[in-house]
Specification:
Layout (H helix, E strand, L loop, with lengths): L2 H21 L9 H7 L12 H22 L6 H19 L9 H15 L1 H19 L6
Helix pairs in contact: 1-6, 2-6, 3-4, 5-6
């Protein structure tokens, strides 16, 4: 399944989770919802260096690194942005090297780890949204439709 279909399936799963959270008055952290809607369904493909999510994160890491270089030499600021950009890019390469495609990052354990991370920093609402998005990727990969 390509990244566009993963986003579409993820949108359906996450929309259902959003409705359930809203009905139970558990919806919070509205600002993070759009980010989760885009990143969570693509996140399991971080183990594939040519995947859309890997390319997006590498672009972000590069941009942060360039801003870090400019801020260090022009504004005489700290090298923390440069370091952050390097860490972001290195993380993608390490994950893509260590984990085989459709391995650990395509597991229920990975879904739970992503949800636990979001719970720690953003609460239950973000955790449920993240789990729904990441899990939708796993469902999308096993759909038997040839068109996807």
């Amino acid at each position: 399944m390509n990244w566009k279909w993963h986003l579409a399936v993820g949108f359906m799963f996450q929309l259902a989770a959003l409705v359930i959270l809203y009905q139970h008055k558990l919806l919070s952290h509205f600002y993070i919802i759009p980010v989760i809607f885009v990143i969570a369904p693509l996140l399991p493909d971080i183990d594939y260096i040519q995947g859309k999510i890997s390319q997006i994160i590498l672009f972000i890491g590069t941009a942060v690194g360039i801003i870090g270089i400019l801020s260090y030499f022009i504004l005489k600021m700290s090298v923390l942005l440069l370091l952050a950009g390097f860490i972001i890019m290195a993380a993608v390469f390490i994950i893509a090297t260590v984990f085989k495609h459709r391995g650990f990052t395509h597991s229920i354990v990975f879904c739970l780890l992503c949800a636990a991370f979001m719970y720690k920093f953003f609460g239950l609402s973000a955790a449920v949204q993240t789990f729904a998005g990441v899990y939708s990727h796993l469902i999308g990969d096993v759909l038997p439709l040839k068109v996807l």
